[in-house]
Amino acid sequence: MAIHGLIRTTLDNGLQVLLRPSHRAPVASFWIFYRVGSRNEAPGHTGVSHWVEHMLFKGTPRFPRGEFDKAIARAGGVFNGMTGQDWTVYFETLPADRIDLALHVESDRMANAVFDPDETELERTVILSEREGSENSEFYRLHEEVQATAFLAHSYRNPIIGWRSDLRTLTRDMLYAHYRTFYAANNAVIVVTGAFEPAAMLAQIEQLFGILPPGPSTPAVTIEEPPQRAERRILLRGEEPTAYYLQVFHAPPALHDDFFPFVVLDSVLGGAKGMGIFGGSANNRSNRLYQALVEQQLTVDVASSFGPTIDPGMFTISATLAPDVEHQAVEAAIWAELEAIQRDGVTTAEMEKAIKQTRAQFAYSSESVTYEAFWLGFSEIVASQEWLATWSERLQAVTAEDVQRVARRYLQRHCQTVGYYIPTPATEEE
């Protein structure tokens, strides 16, 4: 099944281009995805993709630092950049008659980012400060410990921001080598949505990007996470007075047949989500984990998380404990729900609600030209356009038997990694 109105082509230098014109509003959104994220980082180089993303906002000879920001603001647009596990992306959404500004900026910084040594050192301080700010949260520290323990081999074990030791030792030359390896036409996907004429847009892309040379073949990610044969546990202690619980299982990647049944399982347990970077979640209190934990006053909140990834990722259950509740009681209550689905399955009403609400959240996360462009590019990197085009159809095809089957397959005790954050008040020195 094809996405209506989608035009796709590949330039001679390997650059993939996806165009989806629509004239419902006088705006256009330009996105450029690079096939690089923390998944592509080797030990000693963690955080390099995120740091390089920052450096591309530091200017080129044509657009010195700050000039790009001012130009977008004057044009009445918005812009940003983000790094994920599987991708790095930059976007600009502008009035349709100014979208050419995005093409000029992105073609320029694909080839001509400066990486000034002094700016690189200043950014080291910024990123280390960002990381230290996150570490002030015990839940962040717990999540980082659990994630690193859940994966023994795969680079999904590393935080996107990088380990502190690597952030201290990465050099300007390492960053620039990463940029020159991965920021190339043959490793990128351009997506444009909104009010534009396809022939004129493609001609301009050819003019500005077609002249850029392809880069080297990028190193393939060949690491395969070995099957988990024993449950793993993290006990983190600290002075923050609130207790946290975190539990993760390995989960199927986007292109696996079990992906959509797992989406429904996640919705039944923790509520429906939009799954994109702009997606919300259904604020319902009828999901199983809320009823078992919050309504029983074991926790003050609970959430589950699952999203599309290139390689097998994580399904996460997290909770903030109510005062004076033991972690073991929370874990037992969660397992009672998991085992109930494995034993008895899910009801017709739960299936209907999970699918209906997930479709609604997905629609919300892709309704504007900006969100639409994200999903087109994201799907090209992580899955395929067919995967995106058949999303609703495949979600609706999930049966209760499918949900029970994936619960039995993936949610096993020997496949879990569990983290407790245990408040431990500091003792006064005598």
Could you write a compact summary of the structure shown?
With 430 residues, the chain is of the alpha+beta class. Helix content is 42%, strand content 18%.
Notable traits:
5-stranded mixed sheet; 42% helix; 2 domains; 430 residues; 16 helices; globular; alpha+beta; Cytochrome Bc1 Complex, Chain A, domain 1
Q: What do these coordinates show?
A:
This protein is of the alpha+beta class and 430 residues long. The chain has two domains: 7-209, Cytochrome Bc1 Complex, Chain A, domain 1 (2-Layer Sandwich), CATH 3.30.830; 232-423, Cytochrome Bc1 Complex, Chain A, domain 1 (2-Layer Sandwich), CATH 3.30.830.10. 42% of the residues lie in helices and 18% in strands. It is built from 16 helices and eleven strands. The protein has helices spanning 48-55, 67-74, 100-112, 117-135, 138-150, 164-169, 172-182, 198-209, 259-270, 288-294, 327-344, 348-364, 369-382, 385-389, 391-396, 400-410, and strands spanning 7-10, 16-21, 27-34, 78-83, 88-95, 188-194, 232-238, 244-251, 299-305, 313-321, 416-423. The strands form two sheets. The protein has a six-stranded mixed sheet with strand order 1-2-6-3-5-4, with helices on both faces. It has a five-stranded mixed sheet with strand order 7-11-8-10-9, sandwiched between helices. The model has no long low-confidence stretch (mean pLDDT 95).
